[in-house]
Design a protein that fits this description.
With 280 residues, the chain is an alpha/beta fold. The protein has a domain at 78-227 and 237-279. The chain contains seven helices and eight strands. Strands 1, 2, 3, 4, 5, 6, 7 and 8 form an eight-stranded mixed beta sheet that branches. Helix 4 links the parallel strand 3 and strand 4.
Length: 280
């Protein structure tokens, strides 16, 4: 039943009023964010240049994790992790609410993200995504084979991959229908080294706002919303918590095809988000 996926992607954002005191908070966060980020980018690039040729990736990911945790704290977001990362999976999928999802996930997992090619053009975020080895894909279905080849190449090198099967970010109050294209990777026999790539671990993210004057979709970034105005809103008003939940991994051998697996993963994540909304 596709009715549950119906929502208005042009839903108007309820942009909150930013008082002078909140503007001061945002300005303070900005003047902390910029030098901290510049410092970590410098250290990160240095570590990449030094450790990558030696195939030592842990120090590189450590810098990303530390920066992400610091920025989440700066944004007033308390991270709660539920469940544990599976040692048997190299592929993770998650619902998508905002650009802050990246900080949440990479603060916990050594991961490479798959993102739309448009992200590369975004000011600031595009640069950070590029140096983090994000795999940028074209949304043209005819190029999914080419994109899959690039993803396979990274997996064979030992990378863990995370993608957002909704194909877009939302208001955080629903989960859109999952696209099944990249789930085919889990049925690729050439990738199933130690069965790591026949296993997918679903993740779910849910944001809770502390200020009851703010709408529940405060952290959501969707449709044609301006990235600049959204960043300003986060800097000035963000205060809350975010839950990252690791669900039990699923094995491709238990499903006949990628579409069955996609439906199962979507159901797990969707049910968890529904529960979070009802209980918060």
């Amino acid at each position: 039943n596709d009715e549950k996926y119906t929502w208005d992607k042009d839903k108007i954002e309820c942009y909150p009023t930013i008082s002078f005191s909140k503007f001061v908070v945002g300005f303070f966060r900005l003047i902390v964010f910029l030098p901290v980020t510049f410092f970590f980018v410098f250290i990160y690039l240095f570590f990449k240049a030094f450790f990558k040729p030696l195939k030592l990736y842990s120090p590189i990911f450590f810098i990303r994790k530390l920066w992400s945790l610091l920025i989440l704290g700066l944004f007033g977001l308390k991270l709660k992790v539920v469940g544990k990362q599976s040692n048997n999976s190299k592929i993770f999928v998650c619902n998508h609410i905002s650009w802050t999802d990246i900080l949440v996930i990479q603060s916990v997992i050594d991961i490479i993200f798959i993102a739309k090619s448009e992200v590369k053009k975004m000011p600031g975020l595009g640069f950070l995504a590029s140096i983090a080895n994000t795999i940028f894909i074209d949304r043209n279905p005819q190029k999914i084979s080419e994109d899959s080849h690039l993803i396979k190449k990274n997996i064979k090198k030992g990378a863990s991959i995370c993608f957002f099967p909704e194909g877009t970010s939302t208001d955080g109050l629903r989960v859109l229908k999952f696209k099944s294209g990249f789930f085919q990777l889990l049925f690729d026999k050439n990738l199933n080294i130690k069965n790591e790539c026949s296993t997918v671990q679903p993740l779910s993210i849910y944001y809770k706002v502390n200020d009851k004057k703010l709408s529940k979709d405060f952290y959501g970034w969707w449709g044609s919303m301006s990235i600049i105005s959204h960043i300003i809103k986060i800097l000035c008003l963000s205060s809350g918590s975010v839950i990252l939940k690791f669900h039990k991994p699923l094995y491709s051998k238990d499903f006949n095809n990628r579409k069955e697996l996609t439906i199962a993963v979507e159901s797990i994540i969707s049910e968890d988000i529904s529960d979070q909304i009802l209980n918060n």
